[in-house]
From TrEMBL:
This is Transcriptional regulator. The lineage of its organism: Bacteria, Bacillati, Actinomycetota, Actinomycetes, Micromonosporales. It comes from the Bacteria. Residues 18-60 form the DNA-binding protein Rv2175c wHTH domain. Pfam families: Rv2175c_C, Rv2175c_wHTH.
């Protein structure tokens, strides 16, 4: 179940355009729900609560995989002292130098730059 913002409506800064519930993440990745919970615990995937339901930003789960560089970036952000909500805000904060948001850049050729910036936060 993906919850997207209606057309013409602005989403809050630092928020993804769409969410996907954990059971749907499991189905999309073709893994048991327990594996999704494990991925969240191990910081290979980022989840948060919205309206009482744990959800994942939809664009972090592309096709049948998690974005390749996401686990590394989440580890770097955690090591820099970011909690899950702060990491989510950082990933979805618009950044003109990346041509969008760090989350969007992770899916393209700017992933190394996103990782470098996340690493610099720890210093």
């Amino acid at each position: 179940m993906t919850d997207s913002v209606p057309v013409g409506e602005l989403r809050p800064a630092g928020e993804p355009a769409a969410w996907i519930a954990l059971p749907d993440v499991a189905e999309k990745l073709d893994v048991p729900i327990t594996k999704v919970h494990q991925m969240i615990r191990e910081r290979a995937l980022l989840a948060t609560r919205r309206d009482g339901i744990r959800v994942v930003p939809a664009e972090l789960v592309t096709n049948d995989t998690v974005l390749k560089h996401l686990p590394g970036v989440l580890t770097l952000l955690h090591d820099a002292g970011y909690n899950d909500e702060e990491a989510l805000r950082w990933l979805y904060e618009p950044d003109e130098t990346l041509g969008g948001t760090p989350a969007a850049a992770l899916g393209g050729d700017r992933a190394r730059e996103v990782k470098r910036r996340a690493q610099a936060l720890g210093f």
